[in-house]
Amino acid sequence: MKTGKSNVVQAVILAALGLAAVLSLALPQLFRVEREPPLLSLSVMLRDTDSSAWTAARQGMEQAADELGAELRFLTLTVAGDSGEQETLLLREIEDGAAALVVVPADPAALSSALDQWLVVCPAVTLESPMKGAAGTVSPDNALLGRQLAEALAEDWDGGTVLLLDTAGSCAGIMDRLAAAEMALTEAGIPAQRINALPEENCRWLMAFEPAATQQAAERKEAEGKSYSLYGVGAATAITAQLERGNIAAMAAWSDYAAGYLAVRRAVSAAQGEEGKVVPLPFSVLREEDIYAPENQKLLFPIMSSSSR
Amino acid sequence: MNVFRCLAAQWAERYRKMSIQMVLSLSFTAVAAAGMLLMSVSLIWRFSSASEQLVAENSQRVLAQANLNLDSYLRRMMRISDTVYYRSIKNTDLAEGDITGDLALLYEENRDDLVSLAVFDGQGGLVSAVPLTALKQDAKTVDSDWFQAASQSMENLHFSTPHVQNIFDDPDYPYRWVVSLSRHVQLTRDGATERGVLLVDMSFSGVEQVCRDVTLGSGGYLYLIDGDGELIYHPRQQLIYAGLLEENNRAAASYRDGSRQERFQGQSRQVTVKTMGYTGWKLVGVAPAASWPASSSQLPLFGLTLLLFSIFLMAFLNFLISARISDPILRLERSIRELDNGLTGVEIEEGGCYEVQRLSHAVASMVSTMRHLMDDIVRQESRKRRSELEVLQSQINPHFLYNTLDSVIWMTESGQQKEAIQMVTSLARLFRISLSRGKSIIPLADELEHARHYMTIQQMRFKNKFTTVIEAKPGTGELYTLKLIIQPLLENAIYHGCASSEDDGMIRVTAYRDGEDLLIDVEDNGLGMRPELASSLLDEDRPETRTGGSGIGVRNVHQRVSLTFGEGYGLTIFSEPDEGTLVRVRLPALSREEAERCQQGEEL
To answer: Any residues with CB less than 8 A from the CB of A238 and at least 6 apart, and which?
Structure first.
């Protein structure tokens, strides 16, 4: 009787040990499968036809894609700010199996309506402007940026009307900057007026709220010898050069590299079903004399090299 | 403490109840498992240490190579600086000649590594420069770090941290990142010497190219800092500049050369530092602990698999070995228990290892000896008892002898000589058969003859108050029987059956075969008795009562038969009050040869 019980106990011990050994052999295989996720396909679409102003952002995107196991497809519009074309191209990307989208929306509201039913299966992360239904927006605090840029102008202001260059169309993020600047100027008792295009006549003060408009206004000032003081946004080399040459009085700048990196990082996590929140990008309002401060060098002049690992 | 005592007591109790096989196998397995666990932990620890050491050595080797490459690169830059200074500046009076040609030549030879070459006077004014030849209007040369470092420490060459060179007027505004190599130089102008600064702007990509291809295993990387911990190169430099990543470069600046463990942002990693000779820059190799071979999740799992499989094998072997050791002991114990329970014919198996074989052999030998001793004792006791009974039955009741002789005297005195002679003759024959030359087993015919003579004497004494019929059925003529077994039964029949009866008595003795047995019935028609009384007559515990017969009890006859032939043989008494009694003797049907063997004490 006792021997029979012993045999049962021994059989149970042997079975448990054997099972444990087999399990410990099988576990590494399970881990190995988990460690090799497939590459995620991300589609990136800007609202400009020329992506040279987004070089740093693109570098940041590629860095993030390299680190997080994603594959980027960059798409360019044939007409700048063409919301319809943007919708068509993005829908085609979704149908082609894009895991997530990174978009600079030309018209956030229209794009949101067009992609509404697809955003569940293919999350989108926007740059510059927020969009309803998007998994996140990577941009500075647009209202704060507009306000601080207006405050910089107010420091220099000695009379005259400030022209606010409204070139954003339906781009909500740019509109937020403009509205906040307008409000800050009004609060400071500075007369402000919105215009839709660069003024033909001479003016004293001009504010632009997107990089392309800023660069265009600075180049025109230099070319035509305009005397307005320009306050703009952007961190591209061309805009920085205009700031250095004195064609821009002050500009709000942020790291496009960081913006690109964060956008792809958030897009990857959204494609993997993770919730997340994007913190607004830090920005600085710079004048000519600030350009070569060590921290601003790091902000304005990304090391354009093959430093990506 | 009480808990430990309680556990110890429980374990001791459990140990007492365990089988020897269980104790052996569990003990061996536990000891083996503990040993293997210790060995595994020791091996993993050793492997981990060796792996860590290997990673450190690998990092140091890689850093040494990177240091060589970087040092070679920087020395090349220093040679350019030396060439400009010693072959051009020192040999040229600026009032008479120009060094721009020499600078341009050197620049062209090294344009992949150089951004610009420039010489400044003590006030920061440009003396000569290539490829750009003009300064920005607002260039603050004197305030630049590289200018001040060269002015303050004149005997050395100074390397700056990476920065965007902003003093030259370049219509393209390329904003190139450079590392500036500056030194104090002595300019000659109109025969007089004056202070100046020589600037060699190295392209940052030159430093980067030396560092970027250095790999430190999976997940490892290398970065470069100056003596204050300021970052010069990092593979994710722009992420750090953008504030998206942090590096422990400030702390690394205080590390001495060699490898050490550090914990940064919750991650353990090995940091190897190599200080470059001239510049004081530090190459820092980072190997995250997660990338070490020893920290791989595969290693502990592989170790666990080995451990479990080893324990499994050891347990299997232990169970087999313990079973091989304990099974013979258990079988021996079971045999002894069976013996203890009185089973006969139990075989003691002499198996197992040597000691157990010896033990089994000793027990088997002891059991055999005990059996023989017990058989001897039983045989001796049986023989002794039978002898006693034979002695008892061989004694003639003195009353019987006295009464018989008294009857002979009375017959002689009364002239009944013929009857007297018959009685004496019967008595003589009775004695002769009783003696039978000392044999205890005699032919059935003799026994019946003995009964007949006894009844002759008794009939004469009792004046034929009863009649006797003695007959032997066919097939019994050659059989043998224990002697003097019928006479006590006849005596009982006379004294307890017929003597007190008022009717004429009838005593019948019948011998016949029943298969392999011989049956002898002694039947009377006397008073009889209750069946309960009849069945208790043979009870050994019943007190012995003397009868008025020959003095040899019925029970003695039964015991003699049982002792001689076994429990299956003996007497059976059937009786009913007023109807008579039948006493049946069951014996084996012995032939002559069997009787002789039995006589010699052999088993049937």
So the answer is: A53, A215, B173
